[in-house]
Protein 1
Amino acid sequence: MAEDAGNAKRDNATVPATSLVDGLERFGKLSGFLTAAALSLSVFYDWSFLQALGLEFAEVPTTLADHLRSALVWLPGWVAVLSLLALLELVNRLVEGFRSETEIIQGSRNPVFTRRLRRSGDVAVLVAMALGVFTLFLFGTSRSVYYSAFMLAWGVLSLAAITHPRAPLTRWSALGFVMVPFVVAYIGMLGSTRAEGMLNANPEWLVTLKVGDSTEIVRATGVRRFGSVAVVVEPARKLRIPAIVIGDSGLNVTGDSGPS
C-alpha cells in the first residue's frame, strides 16, 4: 500500500511538469509561426510599396531587419482591427448563447426567414465591396483597386464554398480559409496605398543628394529608408519612375514646412 501511494504521488507530480513542457513547446511553435507569418506579410507589404513606385527588390537591396521593421507600420492597425472583430464575435456569441448556427435557425419561429436573414449580412458586405470596387474602376487610378477586386472575388468564391452543404469545414477552419487570402491582399493594399500617398502628397522634405563631389537639393514628397539605401519620392521630376534610390551615406534629409 505504501509503495502504491508513493507511485501515485510521483505520477501526480509529473503531470504539472509535463503540462508545463507541452505548454512551452506550443508557445514556442506559435511564436515561430507568428514571426514567420509577420515576416512574410512584411515582405509582401514592401514589394507592393515598391511596385507602386515602379521599383523592384533588385533595385532596392533590403534585409530581414528592414522587413521586420515594416511590420511596425502595418501590424498595430491590423491588430486593432482583429481585436475589434474578435470582440464583436465574442459579444455576438454571448448574445446567441454560444449556440451553433443550426441550433439558432431550428430554434426560431420561422427557420426559412432566419436562415435568409443571417446570410443577408454576408451578402450586404459583398455588395458594398462590389460598389466600392466599381467606383474605383470608374473614377480611380489607384493600384489598390486590383487588391480590392481580388478581395471581392475571393469573398464571393469563399462564401459560396463554405456555405455549400458538402463543405467539410468547421467554424474556425472556415474562418481561416476566408481570412488568410483576405489578410494578404489587405496588407498588399496598405503598402500600395502608402506609396501612392507619397506620390500625391505635397513636398514636405528638403533632400540633399550627394553624388561624388556634387550635391543636389530636391523637394521630395516622401523618403523611405531600407538599411543601406533610401527611396526618395519626387514626382516633380516627371519621370516614368517617380522615385530614386541612393546610398544612405549620400543622403541628407531635413523637414520642411511645405512647398515654396
Protein 2
Amino acid sequence: MLNQRVVVDNRSIYVVPIGDVGASLNAGQTFEDYSLGVYQIQDPRARVQRLLKGGYITQSVENLAFPNISGTYAFDVVPSVWVTKGSHSMTLLMKPGSSSVSGSYTYNGWFREQHTNAFQGPVSGEVSQGGTATLRVSGGEGTYHIVIAGNNIKLTGPDLFYNEPPITLAGTGPGGSVTVPKFLYAMSSGLTQFLTASHDAIKAGTIQVDDLSELLLLTDTHAGARFRWHVDLCEPAKQVLGQNTVAGTGHVEFGKQPNGEWVLTGYDF
C-alpha cells in the first residue's frame, strides 16, 4: 500500500544533489588533475574523480607554456637616503608541470659603511602566461616583468625592502618555458540522462518500502507506525556517494473509515 502511495504522490524517486560537483565543473579550467588526487571520500573533488573514472565526466587537457625563471639573480642597490650601498641575491626554481615559483633571497645593506641591514628568507610566487611573475618575500609582494634571452633572464619590478624606483634583477638559468597542463571537465551524456531538469541532482533510484514496525493504535480511529526504506542506487549515484545503497526510516499514519476499513492518511521519510 505504502509503495503504491509513494508512486502516486510522485515521491518514489530518490535524488542525490550534485551541486558541489557542478560547481567544480562550472569553475572552468583548472590546473588540478582530479584523476590523480587523493581526497576525503565526500570531498567534491573525490566525487568528480569517481565520476571521471566511471566515464560520467570527461577530461580534456591543454598544455600551456609559462616563462621559466629558474636561476640565480643579483642586483646592486642604487644609493639613497636609506642605504649607501646594498645588494640583492636570489635563487628561484620552477618545477616541471607547475607555474609556481620557490626559492630563497639574501639582502645586505650598508649606511655610511655600517652594515645596517641583513635580510634572508624564502621566496614564493607564480608566473603568468602574460610574461610577469609575482614574488613574495618577508618584505612584501611585487609583480616583475620578465625578459628572457637565451640563458639570460631579467626581472624588473619593485624593491620590496625600500620604496625606491623599480629595480632589475639580472640572472642566468635554463631559460625557455615550463609546460603546464590545464584541465577542463564536463558531464558526459552518460551522466546527463540521469539528471533532474535543473541538472543539480541525479535521479538515483526508486525508493522501496521494506516493512512496517512499532504499529501503535493512537485512538480508536488513528494509528501510526514506523517503516524502513532503501534505494538501490544507479551507477553515477554510486560514484557520487561512494556506496551502493542508501537506507532510512520513516513514519506512516492510518485512519479508520466509518465502514471500518483502515486507510493510509499520511507519511514522511
Protein 3
Amino acid sequence: MKHTMRGNLSARIAVLAIAGLAVGSTASRADNAEQLKDTCPKLAGQTVPAASIGLPSGNAAVVSAAFTAAAPPNPDFCKVTGSIAPVDPAAQAINFQINLPIAWNGKALQYGGGGYNGSLTTGLAPLRDAAPGDPTPLARGYVTFGTDAGHQAASFAPNAIGQFGLNDEMLVNYAYASYKKVRDVASSITRSFYGRPPSKLYYFGGSEGGREGLTMAQRFPADYDGVVSIVPVVQLSMLFQSYIHHQQPQLRGGWLSAAKTRTLAKYVVDRCDTLDGVADGVISNYLACGAHIRLKELRCPGGAQGGDGCLSDLQIAAVAAVHAPYDMPFAGANGISSYPQWLYGNETNPDPRIFGANTRPDPDATTMQRWVVGTAAPTAAVDVNTASQHWLYGANFVRFFVTKDASYDAAKYDPAKFRARVLEMSALIDSTNPDLSAFFGHGGKLIMRENMGDLAQSPLAGINYFNSVIAKLGRDKVDQSARLYVSPASTHTGTAASVLDGSPVPTMVDLLDPLDQWVSEGKAPPDSLIQTVKTTTPPYNVLATRPMCRYPNYPHYQGGDRLQADSYRCMPSKP
C-alpha cells in the first residue's frame, strides 16, 4: 500500500537509524528508543486519507498518541487512538486503538472482538486462553490493534444491542468491513512510526472474533499471514436463528432452574464420564456421549412439573432442542441449510463471565445458565437481568437485522416469511466459504480451536467448516496450512471444571507462538499441544496438564497421574 500519511518525517528519521538495532550498540539502541518516544506524540492529529483504505470509507484521524511507560504486563509503547469516518453521515465512526512497542519485533497482531461488538478492543489484554503469566503479544514485541467494529453499544439500550443493524453501513462494518479498514489504517500508522510496514500480520480472535479471522482469510486473503480462530461463530446468522428455536419450549413453560440443570449434568456424567478411560467428572470423549443419553429417563411422573430430580416434558423438549440440529426451510450461503446440535458434557461448568475468573464460583453461575436458560424464563421484553444470551442475541438479530422492527415479537419468528432478507444476512455475515486457496497460496496459515463444552455456539459448526475446506481443497493441501484442535469440556470462554468436584481442568494454551513459528520458520504445529492450569499468582505453578488433540481425537486416559499430560493418548472420538 502506498504510504500517504502526513506529518511523519520525524518518525521516518527515527527509524532510519533503527534498521541496525540487531547489531548496534547498547547506546544506539537506547538512542533509537528515545527517538521513538519523542516521535510518538507527533502522530496525534495525523490523517490516513480514505484513498489509502481498501474499502469505501471516510478519512481516518489519529485523535491521541501518547508514550506509555512499561507497567506489567506490557512494555514501553506508543498508544494511538483514533477513528475512521463513515461514508453515510448517519452511521457511527469506527474507533480503533493501535499499540506500537518501542522494542518492535517487526510483526503485527489484530485482535478480534466478541458478540455484537460495540466496545473498543484495545489490543492490550492477554490472549484468549492465555495462562497466568503468559506474556501479552505487546510484551512479545508485536504491534497490536483492535476496534469497536464501527458502532458504540453504549448508545443503545441494553436489550437492543443489535440496533446498529438498522444502518446498512454499520451492519457491513460489523460483518467484515471495519476489520479490513482498521487493518489498513494500522499498517499505515505502523509504517509512519517505524519507517516500514509489518513483515507479518496476524489475526487472533475467538467467538465473533474467530468468525472475523476466518472472514479475513476468506475475503482479504492477501492481507494476512496467519489466523488463529477460536470457537468461531462461522454460521452466525443461522446460529442466531437457532437461538429462537431453542427458546420456544422455554417460552411454553420448559424453563430449567439451576437445580434442574445440576440434575441434567449429573445424569450426563453418570452416562458418559468413563468413556474417556477415567472417572473424573470431565466428558472428554465428546462425540461418543450423545448415544448414551436418553432424556426420557429423567422424565417426571406423567411428564408434569416435578421436583428438582426430574424434568417435565417441556423441559426435556428444551434440552432436546439444544442437542438437535436446527433445520432452515431453505439453504443459505454456500448451500448450508442446517445449524448443528450442541454436545453434552457442559451443563454446570462455571462461567467466569458471571462470577469472575478468580473467585469461587456460585454453583448456579454456569455456562448453561448464562447461555441457554438465564435466571428466569424468557419474555418478549427481553429482560437483560434474567434473559439467557440465546434469547438476547436471537431476539436482537430478528428485530434489527431481519425484520428491522424493534417491537417485533421474536417468539413468532418464521424465517420462511423473510426469505430474501435472511439470504442477504447469510451472505453478509456467515463465514462459511470453504475456498481458502488464495490464503493458503501465499503462505497463510490457519489454527482453529473448538471447545466441546461450548453452549454459546455448536463446536460442530467449526468442525463442519473445517471439513468443508478439506472437501474443497483436499486433505494434503489443508494439512500443509491448517490445524483444528479440540478442547473437551471447555466452555465458550475456554474454562472447564469437573462436574464431580469443581476442580479446574487444563484448558490454557498459547496458539500465537505456534502460528508464528509455522509462518516465519515453516515449523508446523504438532498433532497435540499441551494445555495447562496454573496458579493465578507468581510463580504461576503448573497444577495440571493434558494434551489438546487434533480433531477428531480426544485425550484418552492410559493410566498414571491423571493430572499429567503424558498419562493420556490422543484417540479418535466417534459417535
Protein 4
Amino acid sequence: MRYIKYKNIGFLVLGLFFCVLGCKQPIGDAQFRIAQLLVSEKPMTIQLFKDGKTMYTQTLSFGALSSYTSVPAGTYFLRVSTGKKVLLDQEIGLGSKGKYSFCLYGLPVKGELTNSSTLGNTLHKIAEGEEASNPNGLLPKLKILNDIFYGDRSTAKIRWVHAAPGVQSLNGYSVTANAKDTISLKKLEYPEKSSFMDVKPGKTDVFWNLGSNKRKVARVNRDLQVGTLYTFFVFPQRGNYLDSLQVLTASAENLEKR
C-alpha cells in the first residue's frame, strides 16, 4: 500500500513537471493609444486588422490623442486613411502586457503614393519606434513609443518627439520652478525622439529653441508627478506648419495640449 501511495505521488509530480513544460503561459493584452499628428484638415481613420478581422477602428482629428485601448498581444496590420485614400499600410507587433503610444506624423501630399511597409525579421524594432527614425521624406509615418515606466519611481520621466515636418533641428530644455535645475533634453532632427530622462517632480517649464537660435518656438509648463511618464510631442499648427509650433503633452493617464 505504501509503495502504491509513493508511486502515485511520483506520477503526480511527473505530471506537474510535464504540464509546466508543455502548457503555454497566459499571454497578457497590450495597451495602446494614438497621437494623430499627420498634418491634415481632414480627420484620419486608424484601423487594426488581425487574421482578416477588424480589431480596432478610431477616427481622430489633427492634434488629438486617443485613450488607451487593450487588444490581444501579437502581430497586426495597421491602416491609416482619410476618406477613400489610404495613406499608410504597415505591419506592427505588440508585446504581451506592453503599453504603447502610436504617433502618426508627416505631411500628406496630394497624389502621393501610399506609404507601405512590412517589417519581417526586424519586427522587434518597431516596439521602440526605431523603424520610424529613418528619414523617409515627409510621407505619412508611424512611430511606436514604449510607455512602461522603468527605474526610480521617486522621480518623473520626460521625453520628447520632433513631429514637425519641414522644421529644422530643435533644442529642448527643462527648467524647474526655482530655475536652479536646467536640463538639456537633446537636440533632435525631424522625426527623431529622445530617450526618457529622470527629472525632479514639481512645476517645470519646458521649451524648445529653433536650431542654434535662442528664440523659443514652443513652450509648455507642467506640474510633474512622481512615478509618471510624460511625452511632449512638438508639432505644427495646422495651416502654418513651418512658422508656428505647439506641444501635445501626454502622460500615462491624461492628455493636455497648449
